[in-house]
Amino acid sequence: MTLAELIVTISIVLLGLSAVFVNIHHRPSQGAGELARQVANELRNMRKAAMTSGNPRAFCIPTGNATSPIAQSYYTLRGHGKTLPRAVTDTRRQCPGTYLFVGLFGSTPETISSLVHSSPSYPPVSPAEPPFQAAVWMNPVVRDFAFIFLPDGSLATNDLPHDSRGNSYIVIADGLDFASAGPPGGTATMGSNPPPYFKLTAVNSCYTLKLASSGAVSLMRGLPSADPALTVDPTPAAVPSLPPAPPPTLSGVNTAPVVDRINASPLGNPANLPFETTVSPDGRVSLTMFAYDNDGDDLTYKFTSSALDGTPPGKFTYLTATRKLQYPRYSAVGQARADWVPPADVPLGARFDLNATVTDESNESVTSGGTVTVSVRVQEDGTIAFDSNGDIWTMHGDGTLPANKTRGGGSNSWPDISPDGKRIVFVSDRPLEYRNMMTNTNVNLSVKRIYTMNLDGTNVEALTNVDGSTPAKLAATKDSIDDCPCWSPNGSKVAFARTNGASTKIQIVNADGSWHRHDIDDGTAPSWSRVDQPGNKNLIYEKSGVIWQSDQDGNSSSLIPGPSASKPVWSPDGSRILYVKGGLMECKANGSGPIIKFAGGNARVAFKPKGTHFVGVNGGAPVLYTDPGLGSAASSTPFNPPALNGTFGGSLSWALAR
Question: What pTM did the predictor assign?
Fold first, then answer.
């Protein structure tokens, strides 16, 4: 081979390698089909994220403040109370000649609305939930094209066009042309901040994304239905004269989250700073923390406990698997819940500060303090429930921190705290609706019925109703009166007295209002022993001035002779009974050995769950008694009752709140 031939051969080889190198590093750009598939996947992922997180997610196409219907970028929008661009995708490099368009093109009439629940196959928003408003959620409002996926998976927009079936469209094309257009008909919701409206006049090599009102996303080649005057060409066309809208820029400034408040149950005293509550050594404090972020970030959280006297800090139990704040529908303020229990063998009087730390997506944290610290004191006083002025109240066992739990709603009385300290059963004559079968009309009737509620006054439920219209509840006639409820030892049942005409009988009902035992015996004011008595006669009650006892099947016998014996109450250990008979009396569990416990006592009492005290009412005011035990007279001691405008009723209950 000559030198000239060798040079030619080497040149050919190098030329081939150069061609390979060019093919590897300069791949041809993607077109409308590739970009359409990418956007479809982005939309589906955003819908899934909205349904998973419980807050809206928006896919947005910039319009240059409503100056252009085409773009070569898109961004995502989300947030709680403040919506900020989260991720911007610039498509100019991968698809330099491909455009995203939102506007009018169909041959069928198109309309606008913010909430596109117009599809007859998709259910409307429940009246119990606030309707979604794009103009409120988009804070600050932008005039870009926004496709917003809601937590239920459905779709809303900021007044973008959609067809008669509630479908919105995104056209992705390698070439197009358009003209200005006025807004289509419909109910505009964006006020002075609507998106721009244009009409497609020509399109080349296009794909269409259809977004149904249900949130479903589908991809098709070409247009689903086009105006006959619209030019459709499968080959690429020239770049439109109007430049595409520029992509937005991301804000680089982050602000710290804010812990707004922490609610505690049992309730503390909001007049005291820091917030203060109490807990028994084997009880717990339930916390609900409220926080928000001015940037709209998702927030994670943790609770912390610090002992003020050197004891261990106690433990938290989190009520959700994830440590992310949960947001009520469309709310800017998130919530987090946890239970705190004191450490083992904690001494009485120990104090703890409970706080919360929240962290945003930029890893910036803030810890509550000052007025939102929950200060906890360990004590054995528990919680006393009582009635006053027709309402059910609770207070700590030392007489502090009174709280009205019913606040109207009829006349409420005779509270009894459940053994686990979580619920209160009580009597109320608040109006109930029943069906008058004679007139075939609904009638409101104010008559005494048995209700239950949480210790904090929430979740009120009728345990007995009028006509059995709620199958799980115990029915009663409109003329019957229910009174004097008390819990069974395990909290699964409630005993009470029902009066029909001249007859009053003890009855038992399940705590959910289902199965019940009719007519245990004539009588009223039952008390249920927390400890099994001989023959399982754990119920005591008054009947015609005599104290009787019975089992759940109605096998009864007299226990304490009359006359005028009333208002019996078991001691927590089941060893003795206190009752009223010319004064406050005491006897053994079998009725023997009666003594005068306190000469001035004339009302039903409530025993402290642990310790040597009980509380009663004299002259409309609560009295705390020191109890030396069986067979010894009690002495009254000064009590610190809350300052209430009225008097105490005749029934109290004392329990350890859990």
Answer: 0.56
**DSSP track, 505-517:** EEEEEETTS--EE
- Dihedral, CA of residue 410, residue 415, residue 417 and residue 422, to nearest 10: 10
Look up the CATH number of the domain holding residue 570: 2.120.10.30
Q: Which amino acid is at 127?
A: P
CA distance 498 to 449: 9
8 A C-beta contact, residue 290 and residue 334 = yes
Residues 115-161 have pLDDT tens digits of 544 333 333 444 445 677 888 888 888 899 999 998 889 999 999 99
Write out the H or E segment, with its range, that includes residue 21: helix 3-25
User: In this structure, what CATH number is given to the domain that contains residue 57?
Assistant: 3.55.40.10
Nearest to 222 by CA among 168, 161, 172, 147: 172
Strands 584-588 and 481-487: unpaired
DSSP E strands in 222-350: the ranges are 231-233, 258-265, 275-279, 285-292, 300-307, 315-318, 334-341
Beta bridge partners of 306: 353
Strands 556-560 and 546-550, by their bridges, are antiparallel
- Residue numbers of the domain that contains 105: 32-233
Chain centroid to CA 408: how far? Answer: 24
Instruction: Return the amino acid letter for 367.
Output: T
